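INPUT
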Amino acid sequence: MLIHLGVIDYCLLIVYFAFVLGIGFVVKKGVSGTKDFFESGRALPAWICALGFIGANLGAQEVMGMAASGAKYGIMTSHFYWLGAIPAMVFVAVFMMPFYYGSKARSVPEYLKLRFDEKTRGLNAVTFAGMTVMSSGISMYALATLLRAILGWNLHLCIAASGAIVFVYTFTGGLRSAIYNEVLQFFLIVFGFLPLVLLGLKQVGGWSGLTSRLAVVATRNGMPEGAWSHSWKFAGSAQSNPMGVEWFGLAMGLGFVLSFGYWCTDFLVVQRAMAAKDMSAARRTPIIAAFPKMLFPFLVILPGMLAIALTTDAGGGAHFSLPSNGGSLNYDMVVPAMLAHYFPSGLLGLGLTALIASFMSGMAGNVTAFNTVWTYDIYQAYIRPKASDAHYLAVGRAATIAGIAASIACAYTAAKFNNIMDVLQLVFAFVNAPLFATFLLGMFWRRTTGHGAFFGLLAGTAAAAAHHGCR
Amino acid sequence: MDLDVRLPIGLMFSVFGVLLAGFGLVSDPGIYAEHSLGINVNLDWGLVLLAFGAAMLLVALRARRSRARDVTSRRRPGS
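OUTPUT
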């Protein structure tokens, strides 16, 4: 599937890049020390932090993956938001931010040092730094393969160009520039994908047209009629819904372990809230972010549901055809295929820019989290503890270069191994869930010790890995 | 350092809006019949983007003016 872009599409793309780089250069003037570079001076209003908070999380894996799940599982995918994000975001705001922001720790690993001990911090800092570099490399690789597939662009050129752009704005303006760009990307993604939903809904005949076609999809897959259009009704037993899970597993696994592990301890998102100007703004950040987050299923899941509904011939013929991959439907291409089908030249440029923006926000978020953890929690903690602020700022900038270089290396490694993404997702889950348990104990039980935290983390990760291995 | 982020957002969406709506006015209607159910989405959505961009700019400029007023009123008693 190759898309041909017109002059207008390239114009939109160039305007976007000009603004992204421009923000980096304007913000650069305000960066005079590590506090500006790594914590954006702790001076941002809550609404900016909140949009950065979801912008950093609104990576391409989310935009494309949620649409793919929407086609595969229907509206049940919304549990990734309503169960898998909102409660945890509220929890971070109410219970965790006072600890993070109030402790004066500059990062999550540093908080672990203040609460527990040095080795717990070291363990978390090293695993987290490794994970951010890998995630950013994977974003880079995924963007490059997508652009090669739909536009026929050169893979190496895409990796180099995306790395260079993210490099320029994170190197110059640090966290503030990354957050400002995440806000820009947030609006771009909203305005870039909304017309897709509107056009799809118009063609399918509104919500009632959508549900009647999805009923056909469901019965063809041997499920009850509403399986694609009800989020809770068929969660009673694993056999009657397309996700194959029942409500208890859903609520505990997704709604508790995975979501709390991610939202409460992942420095990538917590860093955005910690950039707020005061405690009240830091606590409002996840709460404000929760409101748009609740509505996101309509933006990112609905396109997938529309794609599968429009692909299905429900009497009146199919309006759309989902690309297939050797006989089976290629769900991962839902978004690009919908963009190519419904967007004429012009709007197509906007949609593609939004897609590229989502990849870049994922990369930049990881890079800014990496350089902070590297400088504060590895370099300052273990390599050179008592240097000047200017020295650490230089190290942070150097870490940005190193982090992007390492991401590029990861991107090429990902190109060699086909299933590396699945493997990494698994590893992240092993590391994150025990971390949240450690945090909970540390915050609410005074007698939790440093040794306990360290070995708990190790044992938790090992147990998760062993359990997976034995399955 | 006080770059108000609403300024670049407003500017970028205004530029996007003008480009899209302008292209919508001059483009061949055939592309809309082929893709977007016959609706001139470039013109329509371009106007939406322009309205959003202009609103952002307006808010940013008003905030800047009120900040400037605060600064001058604070200076007056001392000077």
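end of record. The helical segments of chain B are 6-26, 30-34, 41-78.
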